C-alpha cells in the first residue's frame, strides 16, 4: 500500500485566516508498505521528488468609474495558465475595501494555487444576485508574487443581463497574448445580429471575415444630440462600425444609464463598448434619428 501526505496547516473557514474554503495541496511525503517474500512488512518513507510549487497570486479588480458601475452580486474568477488553472474561486474578502466592487474602486484579493505557469486567460462572472447586480468591469491585474510577473486583463464592458450584450460572464485574454482566442463567441457575432436586409451570401461573407479577424478592442463613443426642435429620441440606439473590405462589428448597443430614458436635445452621452477591430474606420451605421451626431474613438 502507499500513503501520500498532503500538508495544509491552514483554515478552511469563512470566519478564519483569509476566509477561503478552498485550498490546493501538493504532496510532500510518500509512505509505502511492502510485503516481503519472508512475510515481513517493509515500511519506506520518502520525500516527493520535484514537488509542485504553490504560488501566491495577488489579484487587483478595477471597477469602472461610470454611473451604476458597482455590483452587490457575488463574483467568481478562474485563472488559466499554460500549466493549468485555479478552478473557479469566489472573490469573497477584499483586502482593500469593506464594500467591494464599488464604482471607481480597486479591490485586492489573494489566491494560492499550484504554479500555473504563464497566465494567458481568465474567466470572470457574477451570479446576478442582490439588488444591484449590474457591473462595469474595467480590468483585472494579477501579480504572481513568487515570480514577480504581472499580467493585465482588460475588460471595459458590462457584466449585466440588462446592458450591452446581456452577458454576466466574460473571458478575458492577457493584453500581450497573441495565441488562439475564441473571440467569435465572446463578441456574439452571428448572422442574426447583422442587418436583416441585403444579400445572404454577403452577410455570410461578413461573418466569416469577422471570425477570421478575431481581435476585440474597446471603442469609446460620444453621442451628441442636436438642439433643433424634436431632436431627442427614446429609441434604443446601436451603431455598426465598418472598416475596409467589408469588415464590420456586430451591432454595438448604446444603452443609456439608469435614470435616463432618452437621448435628450443637446445632450452628450459617452459609452464604452467592445467590438471587432475593423482597422481604419470607413463608415458608421446607426438608427436614423434626426440630429444624431457621432464621435468615435478606438484604441
From TrEMBL:
Name the UniProt record assigns to this protein: PLAT domain-containing protein
SUPFAM superfamilies named among the record's database cross-references: Lipase/lipooxygenase domain (PLAT/LH2 domain)
Annotated organism of origin: Bambusicola thoracicus
Bias-annotated ranges (Low complexity): 188-197
Domain of life, per lineage: Eukaryota
UniProt-listed PROSITE patterns: PLAT (PS50095)
UniProt domain PLAT: residue ranges: 1-26, 55-173, 217-299
Region (Disordered): 188-207
InterPro entries: Inner_ear_hair_cell_LOXHD, PLAT/LH2_dom, PLAT/LH2_dom_sf
SMART domains: LH2
